[in-house]
C-alpha cells in the first residue's frame, strides 16, 4: 500500500497505515453487516 | 485570508505522509449513507398505514402507494439535477465543503420528512426526503469522484469503483437498519408505527457517519503524482492528458454519446430490478415447477437480495477490470453480452430453467452496477481530470431520465401483455426483448465514441494525447 509521496518519512507512513486500517474498518464493518443481512435473506431462494 | 476556513479547498490539500488509501473510505462514508435511498421502499407499507395503524388494512385517508412512490421519484430526479447544477461549484470549493453540504441536506431531509410524518403532511415528506434529501444525494454522489481520480490516475476504475460500490452497499445497510429502528420505536410506543422516530434517528446517524468522510478527505497538490507513476505512453487516443471544462464537454458529441450509453444501460437494468420479484414468482410458479416447488414470496425476496449483491460486486469488479480492458471495450461487453443475456431470459423462463435464470439475472446485474461505476473513469479518459466531477454530475441526468423511463416502459409492456391474455414468462417476453433493443442503441452509441476534438481542450493545457 503506497502513500502519497516517495519522500514521506517512515514515521509518517507508519502512522498513516494505522489510520488507513481504522478508516477501512469504520466503513467496512457496516458494509459487511449489510452484505451479511442481504446474504441471509438471499439464502431463502435456495431453501 | 479571511475566508480561509477548515472547509476551504486550500485547507484540504494533503501534506507529506498522507496516505491516498484514506480517500476511498472517506468516499465510502458518503456513498454508504446516501445509498440508503435505494432502500426507501422499506418505509412504504408503514407510511401507507399511519392513520389505520395496520399496514395490512390502510384507512381511506392513508397515503396511497402511488403517492408514496412519488417520494423516491422526486429524490432520484433531484439527484440528477443537483449533480448537474452543483458540479462546477463542487470543483471550485473542493470535496470537503460539498460533502458537508450533502450531509446536511441528506440528514436534514430526514428531519423534515419526520415532521411531515408526525403531522401527516405528505408535502413535507416530498420536500424533506425528496427535494432536500435529493439534493444531498446528487452533491454527495459526485463529491468524491474527481478527488479519487486525481489520487488514483493509475487506477481510476478501481478507485471510483470502490466509492460507487458504496452506493450499492448503502441500500443493504439502510434496509435492515430501518426495520430494526422501526421495530424498536414501535415497541417503545412513539407513534406513527415508529416511522417518524426512525427518520429522526437515521437522519442523525447518517449526518454523523458522513462527517468521517468530510474530515478525512484530502485533495492532492497540483503537481502530485503517485510514486513511480508515469502517464501511459502506449498509443491510446481515447485517454487524454489534456482537459475539457464542463461547459465545453456538453458541446461535444462524446458527452451525449456517453449520456445515451448510461441511460440505456440503466434503463435496461431497471427493467430487471423492477420486475425481479413478480417475474420469478410468476415464471417459476407451482404450475410451472410442480405443486410445492414454486418460488415463494420469501424466496423471491431472496432473489432480489441476491441481485443487490451482484449489483454491488459488479460495481467494483467491472470498474477495476476496465483499467485493464479499456472503458470502451468494457462497455462493449456490457452491451454485447447484455443483449444476449436479456434475450435469453424469456427462453429460460419458458423452459423452467430456474438455476440458469438466476445465474443470468445475476450477471446482468453486475453489468448494471458496472455501468454506473465505470462511467467516471470513461469521462476522465475522454475529458481529463480538471472538471470531471462537474461533467459526471451533468451526465447523471441520464440516470434521472432512466429512473423515469425504465419503470414506465416496463409497466406499460407488462400491463399490455397481460391484457392480451399472456401469463407467466410470456407476460415478460416483450419487456426483455425491448430492453435488449435498448442495449443495441447503447452498443451503437459506445461504438461511435471517438477522441474529443482539439478545439474543446483548454489552451493552457493543450491536449496531449498519450503519444
Automatic annotation (TrEMBL), chain B:
UniProt-listed InterPro entries: MFS (IPR011701), MFS_dom (IPR020846), MFS_trans_sf (IPR036259), Proton-linked_MCT (IPR050327)
Transmembrane segments: 21-43, 63-86, 98-117, 123-145, 157-179, 191-209, 255-276, 296-318, 330-348, 354-379, 391-410, 430-449
Swiss-Prot/TrEMBL keywords: Membrane, Transmembrane, Transmembrane helix
Name the record gives this protein: MFS transporter
GO terms, molecular function: transmembrane transporter activity
Organism: Hymenobacter metallilatus
Database matches in CDD domains: MFS_OFA_like
Ranges for domain Major facilitator superfamily (MFS) profile: 1-454
Claim: Repeat is one of the keywords in the record: no
Signal peptide stretch: none
Amino acid at each position: 500500500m503506497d502513500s502519497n509521496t516517495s519522500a514521506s518519512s517512515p514515521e509518517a507512513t507508519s502512522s498513516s497505515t494505522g489510520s488507513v486500517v481504522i478508516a477501512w474498518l469504520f466503513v467496512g464493518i457496516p458494509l459487511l453487516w449489510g452484505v451479511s443481512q442481504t446474504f441471509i435473506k438471499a439464502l431463502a431462494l435456495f431453501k | 485570508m479571511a475566508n480561509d476556513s477548515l472547509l476551504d479547498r486550500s485547507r484540504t490539500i494533503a501534506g507529506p505522509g498522507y496516505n491516498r488509501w484514506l480517500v476511498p473510505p472517506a468516499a465510502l462514508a458518503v456513498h454508504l449513507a446516501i445509498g440508503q435511498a435505494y432502500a426507501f421502499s422499506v418505509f412504504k407499507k408503514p407510511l401507507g398505514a399511519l392513520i389505520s395503524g395496520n399496514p395490512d388494512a390502510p384507512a381511506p385517508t392513508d397515503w396511497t402507494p402511488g403517492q408514496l412512490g412519488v417520494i423516491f421519484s422526486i429524490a432520484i430526479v433531484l439527484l440528477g439535477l443537483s449533480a448537474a447544477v452543483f458540479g462546477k461549484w463542487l470543483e471550485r470549493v473542493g470535496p470537503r465543503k460539498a460533502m458537508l453540504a450533502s450531509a446536511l441536506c441528506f440528514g436534514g431531509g430526514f428531519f423534515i420528512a419526520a415532521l411531515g410524518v408526525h403531522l401527516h403532511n405528505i408535502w413535507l415528506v416530498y420536500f424533506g426526503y425528496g427535494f432536500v434529501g435529493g439534493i444531498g444525494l446528487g452533491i454527495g454522489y459526485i463529491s468524491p469522484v474527481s478527488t479519487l481520480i486525481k489520487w488514483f490516475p493509475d487506477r481510476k476504475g478501481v478507485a471510483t469503483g470502490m466509492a460507487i460500490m458504496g452506493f450499492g452497499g448503502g441500500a443493504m445497510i439502510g434496509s435492515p437498519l430501518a426495520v430494526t429502528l422501526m421495530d424498536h420505536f414501535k415497541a417503545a410506543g412513539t407513534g406513527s408505527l415508529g416511522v417518524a422516530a426512525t427518520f429522526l434517528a437515521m437522519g442523525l446517524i447518517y449526518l454523523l457517519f458522513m462527517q468521517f468522510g468530510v474530515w478525512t478527505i484530502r485533495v492532492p497538490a497540483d503537481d502530485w503524482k503517485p510514486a513511480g507513476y508515469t502517464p501511459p505512453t502506449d498509443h491510446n487516443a481515447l485517454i487524454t492528458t489534456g482537459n475539457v471544462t464542463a461547459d465545453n464537454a456538453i458541446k461535444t458529441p462524446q458527452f451525449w454519446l456517453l449520456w445515451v450509453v448510461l441511460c440505456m444501460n440503466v434503463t435496461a437494468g431497471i427493467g430487471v430490478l423492477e420486475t425481479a420479484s413478480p417475474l420469478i414468482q410468476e415464471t417459476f410458479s407451482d404450475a410451472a415447477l410442480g405443486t410445492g416447488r414454486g418460488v415463494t414470496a420469501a424466496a423471491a425476496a431472496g432473489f432480489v437480495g441476491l441481485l443487490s449483491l451482484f449489483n454491488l460486486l459488479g460495481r467494483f469488479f467491472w470498474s477495476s477490470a476496465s483499467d485493464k480492458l479499456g472503458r470502451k471495450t468494457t462497455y462493449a461487453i456490457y452491451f454485447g453480452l447484455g443483449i444476449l443475456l436479456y434475450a435469453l431470459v424469456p427462453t429460460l423462463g419458458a423452459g423452467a430453467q430456474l438455476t440458469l435464470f438466476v445465474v443470468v439475472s445475476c450477471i446482468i446485474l453486475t453489468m448494471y452496477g458496472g455501468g454506473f461505476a465505470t462511467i467516471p473513469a470513461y469521462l476522465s479518459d475522454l475529458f481529463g481530470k480538471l472538471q470531471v466531477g462537474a461533467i459526471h454530475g451533468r451526465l447523471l441526468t441520464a440516470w434521472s431520465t432512466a429512473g423515469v423511463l425504465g419503470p414506465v416502459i416496463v409497466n406499460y409492456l407488462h400491463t399490455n401483455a397481460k391484457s392480451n391474455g399472456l401469463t407467466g414468462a410470456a407476460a415478460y417476453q416483450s419487456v426483455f426483448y425491448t430492453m435488449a433493443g435498448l442495449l443495441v442503441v447503447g452498443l451503437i452509441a459506445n461504438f461511435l465514441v471517438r477522441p474529443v476534438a482539439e478545439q474543446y481542450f483548454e489552451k493552457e493545457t493543450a491536449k496531449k494525447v498519450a503519444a
